[in-house]
Task: inverse folding
């Protein structure tokens, strides 16, 4: 078991627009502050899938491969709140090698002092390409 | 109106195949801060890329009036991707979404949904999610 060096991403409103375009999820709670507040949110929030996607990018950096994730899952426990000035999202990881030899990376994600993902876990593909 | 429990087992087959298009992969990859992967391993597809198909499939299933899900009250509870083989640029996959479970806990309902991405008879990957329909208080 080993701890992996934290990886941080700056999350801006522009990133949310870019991700909305790339993913097809144009829900206004991720772009429009007035709309987000009108539906009871404290501010614009990031797409859960953006947080999950960035977690996968962090895993790729930790394992040094761009194609090494065989299984990846998470629960979305809290939204990442993105004020106009942006925010920071930090991932920490623990790598565990199971008795079978299978490598697992358990990821925690924090933004604004709050853990936003729970049970985030990647199973690493041992096949070499 | 609560989610219709009889929808367990209901399937939705996407009308169009999911094409792993190089431009769309690059757009998605750039949005996820993968500069090194985008340059050195252009063929690599981000692990969460299938959400571009499965989210739409889930929404279509939810909007089916017989399912009875109020999309405005929906929150993404969890998501998992399981790969049986890697996604590759150029693949064209059939997308089939199945409702696996419906459960009420307090005011909320939890709908378990699984999307299969098939290359012919082979399942390339599955995307599983829990959709939470928030109850009105």
Result:
């Amino acid at each position: 078991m080993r701890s992996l060096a934290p990886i941080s991403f700056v999350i801006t409103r522009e990133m949310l627009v870019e991700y909305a375009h790339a993913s097809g999820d144009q829900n206004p709670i991720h772009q429009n502050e007035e709309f987000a507040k009108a539906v009871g949110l404290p501010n614009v929030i990031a797409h859960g899938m953006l947080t999950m996607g960035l977690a996968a990018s962090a895993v790729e950096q930790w394992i040094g491969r761009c194609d090494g994730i065989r299984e990846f899952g998470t629960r979305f426990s809290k939204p990442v709140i993105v004020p106009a000035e942006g925010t920071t999202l930090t991932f920490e990881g623990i790598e565990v090698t199971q008795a079978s030899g299978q490598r697992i990376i358990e990821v925690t994600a924090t933004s604004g002092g709050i853990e936003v993902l729970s049970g985030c876990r990647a199973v690493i593909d041992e096949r070499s390409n | 109106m609560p989610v219709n429990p009889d929808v367990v087992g209901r399937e939705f087959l996407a009308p169009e195949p999911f094409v792993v298009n190089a431009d769309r992969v690059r757009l998605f990859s750039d949005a996820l801060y993968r500069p090194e992967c985008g340059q050195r391993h252009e063929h690599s597809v981000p692990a969460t890329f299938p959400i571009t198909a499965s989210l739409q499939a889930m929404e279509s299933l939810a909007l089916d009036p017989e399912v009875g899900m109020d999309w405005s009250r929906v929150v993404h509870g969890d998501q998992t991707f399981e790969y049986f083989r890697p996604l590759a640029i150029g693949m064209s996959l059939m997308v089939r979404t199945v409702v696996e479970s419906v459960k009420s806990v307090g005011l909320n309902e939890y709908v378990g949904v699984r999307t299969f991405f098939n290359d012919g008879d082979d399942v390339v990957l599955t995307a599983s999610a829990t959709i939470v329909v928030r109850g009105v208080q």
Q: What stands out?
A: The helical segments of chain A are 13-23, 33-38, 48-63.
